Amino acid sequence: MKRPDSKAASATLQTLHRRGVGHGQVSIDTTNRKAPLPNAIKTRWNAAQPVHLPGLLLPGIEKHAGEIRDALNIMRRVRTGESCIDILIEEPFASRLEPDFDLLSPVHSGDAQEIEKIVFDAVKSGELFAEDLWMKVSCLSFFDDDASIRFRFSYGMEMFKNQEDDPLREALAAELAARVFPECSILSEHAQLIELLTDVLGFAPAFVERIIYSNAPGGGAQFHQDVENDHVGIVYAQLYGHTAWLALPRADLLRHICDFLAADDSETFSELRDMAKNATRLAQLIESDEESNPQEALETLLNATPAFTTRLIEAGCGLTLAPGDVLLLPQASTEHCCWHSVFCLDDAALEHPPGHSLSFAITRTA
């Protein structure tokens, strides 16, 4: 992904637009789609850089085309206001869940972005095996014209997740995701990917905390990291639709912020500019959830300043994902992780405009 000065015949222009903010156009060259060599993959991972593996999942997408259509249908129906419970008691979903998962009543987590949260019991041989597994459907933003949603599968209490350690329920939540969305196996059972990750990590990976994303035109995720206890990274798979990404190590992101602010003289970033002169304070601010004027200015810089987006693209931090592509995002610690931001590139005029993608946390096999 480059700024639109590329003269390659195969390049096409795409507009980056998210949550009401235009970030300009980019040139996408569909011919330069080679995966890095194994040694380069390991080097990039160890440097907290993104690893793009184009086309790796294309055979699996063809094999699971019907299940992907089922998923797109769920997404469409949820967007029109239907309850997931009503959908999941229909076929083919009822048969996928029976007899191992009992669907219980919905609960409310108090999350303002929540659409619906459904709790399940795991049942083995007719007996209760595990409780408090759940699927949570949420909006990605509060922006009215952003129809992006996600389906997250996990267990226990969300606010105290880091205090829980239950490998059994973690594995069952992953199995629940695969029952509702069987195309999860395109990623989780991909022998070549598992072998690659085993070589990079030094241990066999498990794929947990599974999220199914549907990025809609004009939507996508703002800059963030996904560091969690015992997780080493994220594996993302594009199954339907196209996305553009900004992805880079935290250290590089902080450097770009400082360099941008040093050359900027606008009043908008005056307080943030002063704070950025102290590297420690800026590093603390980027990880903070507290509401403050500098924090608001930083959010504006990262997510609603086209000139900063341009800077990152020109620095080689932009990439695009097509169906079949995999993206590895190292998340070892807050200091050593790959920050990322997502834009949907799909046309709202398509039959199924919202995309379909998988995002799994990578951890050690129990």
Task: Characterise the protein shown here.
With 366 residues, the chain is α+β, with helices and mostly antiparallel strands. The chain has a domain at 53-244 and 324-331 and 345-364. 32% of the residues lie in helices and 30% in strands. It has 13 helices and 14 strands. The protein has a 9-stranded antiparallel beta sheet with strand order 3-12-9-14-8-7-6-5-4. A 3-stranded antiparallel beta sheet has the order 11-10-13. A two-stranded antiparallel sheet has the order 1-2. It is globular, with a radius of gyration of 21 Å.
What key attributes describe this structure?
globular; 14 strands; three-stranded antiparallel sheet; 366 residues; alpha+beta; nine-stranded antiparallel sheet
Largest sheet: 9 strands, antiparallel
Q: Which consecutive residue ranges, at least 5 long each, have pLDDT under 50?
A: none
The fraction of residues assigned to DSSP E strands is 25-35%
Order of helices and strands: EEHEHHHHEEEEHHHEEEHHHHHEEEE
Using DSSP, what is the number of strands?
Answer: 14
- Please, how many helices? 13
Gap from first CA to last CA = 38 Å
Average pLDDT over all residues: 92
Shape: globular
Structural class: alpha+beta
Strand line-up in the sheet with most strands: 3-12-9-14-8-7-6-5-4
Give Rg in angstroms. Answer: 21 Å
Share of helix, binned: 25-40%
Quick synopsis:
The chain has 366 residues and is an alpha+beta fold. It is built from 13 helices and 14 strands.
